[in-house]
Amino acid sequence: RFLQSLGTVFSFISKDAVAKIQIMENYCCGEQRENYTSLQSMVEYELTNGLVDIHKRSEHPDSGCRTVALRWLQLFLEGLRTGREDSRTSVICTDSYNASLAAYHPWVIRKAATVAFCALPSRNAFLEIMNVGTPEEAIAVLGEALPYICEVYGITQELFAQHQLLDLP
Predict the structure, then answer these.
(1) Start and end of every Glycolipid transfer protein domain (predicted)?
(2) Residue 101 pLDDT grade (very low, low, confident, very high; cuts 50, 70, 90)
(3) What are the domain boundaries of the chain?
(4) Residue 20: exposed, middle, or buried by beta-carbon count in 10 A (0-12, 13-18, 19+)?
(5) Tens of pLDDT along 111-122?
(6) Is the overall model pTM greater than 0.85, yes or no?
(7) Residue 128 — φ and ψ, nearest 5°?
(8) Residue 169: pLDDT over 80
(9) What are the b/e assignments for 135-168, b being 16+ CB within 10 Å?
(10) What is the CATH number of domain 1-163?
């Protein structure tokens, strides 16, 4: 809902996020749901059953391992939280995108995303769009949420590193 509230500028990220959530929900409720009760069980199941190829994009492009992505959100929300009042949201978003998702998108998508980010509102207006109160209250909410996002991201990265999944094609 948060991404959708940001309007058409974020529609491509929002659609991608919704699709990824749907993929994971389908796995968690599907025939193999017992293999998707935790991140650890998902990785073990998908590797054991050849559902993810660490060397090339396999015939299973929607594996759970390929679907988990938190880095952009973590970077972007941290940038919003720690940025100055006059920080440009477009710069925060572009920097976060370039440090995370851009490597996985073709050139055309990367350029379209960069152009779209230029239409983002100011940082304070953006914080108000979050609909949790004043910009100061939004910053406080981000301060509460980010440690959890960081913890989940760290656990994911550690698990993926153990199984050489950090650089999935």
Answers:
(1) 1-131
(2) confident
(3) 1-163
(4) middle
(5) 888 888 888 888
(6) no
(7) -70, -35
(8) no
(9) beebbebbeeebeebeeebeebeebbeeeebeeb
(10) 1.10.3520.10
